[in-house]
From TrEMBL:
InterPro entries: ABC_transporter_permease (IPR051393), MetI-like (IPR000515), MetI-like_sf (IPR035906)
GO biological process, one term: transmembrane transport
The protein, known as: Sugar ABC transporter permease
Localization: Cell membrane
Membrane association type: Multi-pass membrane protein
Region: Disordered, residue numbers: 1-27
UniProt keyword Electron transport present: no
Pfam families referenced in this protein's UniProt entry, alphabetically: BPD_transp_1 (PF00528)
Positions of the ABC transmembrane type-1 domain: 93-306
Signal peptide annotation: none
Organism name: Streptomyces liliiviolaceus
The family this protein is said to belong to: Belongs to the binding-protein-dependent transport system permease family.
C-alpha cells in the first residue's frame, strides 16, 4: 500500500531576502567611509610616528648598534648585561623608585590640600587657580630647572635661608644625600595640574552628604575621611596613575640639576637620564632601546596592579546600578 506524503512543499526562496543583508552591509560600509577619511591623519600618524618606531626600537634592543654602523644581532645580550652586569643600571632604578615613592604622594597631597582651600574661597578663586596652575606650565622647561639648580646650589638662596634658622645643609646640588630631593621639590612645586582635577572633583560632591554627616556629629576630619575621600577616590586614582607614569619618565630636571651626568656620585642618575647617556653619549643605542622596553614593561605592570587593586578602594557613585 503506497503512502502519500502530506508534507507541505517548501516555500520558494525569495531572492530579495538573500540580497537584503548584502545590501545592508554595503550600506553600512558606505556610511562608514567618511569616518575613516577623517580618522586617516590620526591612523597614519599613529602608524608612522608610533608603531613603526616602536617596532624598530624592539628590533634594535636585540642588536649591537652604535648609530653609525649597521645593527648587529646579539639576541638577549643587552638584557642580560643590564640585569646582571651593570651596577649603574640598578642605581638608576633605585634612584627613580625613591623619587617616585617620595614625589608622587607629596605632590598629590599638596594638590588636594590646595584644591580644598580653593573650594572654600569665594572671591578670587579663578585668580588663585591660575596662579597655582602656572608652575605646571613652566616647571618642565630647561630654564626653570636651571634656575632651580641655582637656588639649591652652593651659596644659593635655599642654603642661605636654611642657615638663617641654624640649619647648615650647604648646597643641595653638590650633596649626594640631598641632590635627589632638589628634583623632588621641583616636581612637587608643579602641583597645579592635579590640583585643577581635584578641584573639579570636589565641586561635584553633593553638599547634602556633608550636611548629613554634620547632623550625625561628624567633624571636619571625619567628614574628610568618610565623605570627601570616598567620593573623590576616582579622581585620586586618575591622578595617581598619571603622576606615577610621568614620574618614571622624569628627565629634564635631572639633566639640568646634575649637569647631564647624574652627579654627584650618581645620586641623580634617573632611569631616563642613564638611558640617554647609554644611547647618545656612549652610542650604545641597542642597549638604550632595551632599557626603554624594560621601562615600558615596568610601567605597564605597575599600572595593571593599580587597576587591579583599585577595586578595593575606589568608589563609584553609580556602581550599585551597574
Amino acid at each position: 500500500m503506497s503512502t502519500v506524503s502530506t508534507r507541505a512543499p517548501a516555500p520558494a526562496e525569495d531572492p530579495t531576502q538573500t540580497r537584503r543583508p548584502a545590501r545592508k552591509r554595503r550600506g553600512v560600509r558606505e556610511k562608514q567611509w567618511p569616518a575613516y577619511v577623517f580618522l586617516s591623519p590620526w591612523l597614519i600618524g599613529a602608524g608612522v610616528l608610533t608603531l613603526v618606531p616602536m617596532a624598530a626600537s624592539l628590533y634594535l634592543s636585540f642588536t649591537d648598534y652604535n648609530l653609525f654602523d649597521a645593527p648587529r644581532w646579539i639576541g638577549l645580550r643587552n638584557y642580560s648585561e643590564m640585569l646582571f652586569d651593570d651596577p649603574r643600571y640598578w642605581r638608576s632604578v633605585g634612584t627613580t623608585l625613591l623619587y617616585v615613592v617620595v614625589a608622587v604622594p607629596l605632590k598629590l597631597a599638596l594638590a588636594l590640600g590646595v584644591a580644598m582651600l580653593l573650594k572654600s574661597l569665594g572671591r578670587g578663586r579663578a585668580f588663585y587657580r591660575s596662579a597655582f596652575y602656572a608652575p605646571s606650565l613652566l616647571g618642565a622647561s630647561m630654564t626653570i630647572a636651571l634656575v632651580w639648580k641655582a637656588l639649591f646650589n652652593d651659596g644659593g638662596s635655599v642654603a642661605g635661608a636654611l642657615s638663617w634658622f641654624g640649619i647648615d645643609t650647604g648646597g643641595w646640588v653638590g650633596n649626594p644625600d640631598l641632590a635627589v630631593y632638589a628634583v623632588v621639590l621641583l616636581t612637587v612645586w608643579q602641583f597645579g595640574a592635579p590640583m585643577v582635577i581635584f578641584l573639579a572633583g570636589l565641586q561635584q560632591i553633593p553638599s547634602d552628604l556633608y550636611e548629613a554627616a554634620a547632623l550625625d556629629g561628624a567633624g571636619r576630619w571625619r567628614q574628610f575621611l568618610s565623605v570627601t575621600l570616598p567620593m573623590l577616590s576616582p579622581v585620586v586614582f586618575f591622578n595617581l596613575v598619571l603622576e606615577i607614569i610621568n614620574s618614571f619618565q622624569v628627565f629634564t630636571p635631572a639633566f639640568a640639576i646634575s649637569g647631564g651626568n647624574g652627579g654627584p656620585a650618581d645620586s641623580t642618575m634617573f632611569y631616563t637620564l642613564y638611558l640617554y647617556e647609554r644611547g647618545f653619549t656612549a652610542s650604545h643605542m641597542g642597549y638604550a632601546a632595551a632599557m626603554a622596553w624594560l621601562l615600558l614593561i615596568a610601567i605597564g605592570v605597575i599600572t595593571l596592579i593599580l587597576f587591579r587593586t583599585s577595586r578595593t578602594w575606589v568608589f563609584y557613585a553609580d556602581e550599585e546600578g551597574r
